[in-house]
Design a protein that fits this description.
Helix content: over 70%
Radius of gyration: 44 Å
Strand content: under 5%
Shape: rod-shaped
Number of strands: 0
Distance between the termini: 152 Å
Number of helices: 1
Order of helices and strands: H
Keywords: Signal
Structural class: mainly alpha
């Protein structure tokens, strides 16, 4: 009877260790999955932040280019206006000089 009892206890111990091993393996798999999910979520979040940052940088570049274009247009209009005034000034000066020559 003692051998039967020892054999029964040994079988239960092996079954218990086997169950613990399966639980440990399941826990390890669950932990691995959780870590994988966390890493995946972190990578996705980082990717979204990079995309958003690049979008903002692109928008800033576009806005800057628009402002440079507007400033260039304004400068061209100013230069054209100044050139027109300079032509009128030179024309007036030449006209006065011609009149002065006629008087002499």
């Amino acid at each position: 009877m003692r051998k039967t009892l020892i054999t029964g206890v040994a079988v239960l111990a092996v079954a218990g260790l086997s169950a613990c091993s399966e639980k440990a393996q399941d826990n390890l798999e669950n932990a691995g999955s959780a870590i994988g999910n966390d890493v995946s979520n972190a990578v996705d979040t980082a990717g979204e932040k990079i995309d958003n940052g690049l979008d903002r940088a692109g928008n800033a570049i576009d806005n800057g280019a628009d402002r440079v274009g507007a400033a260039t247009d304004n400068a061209a209009a100013d230069a054209q206006r100044e050139a027109g005034e300079a032509k009128r000034d030179v024309g007036g000066a030449l006209e006065r000089a011609g009149n002065d020559i006629k008087k002499d």
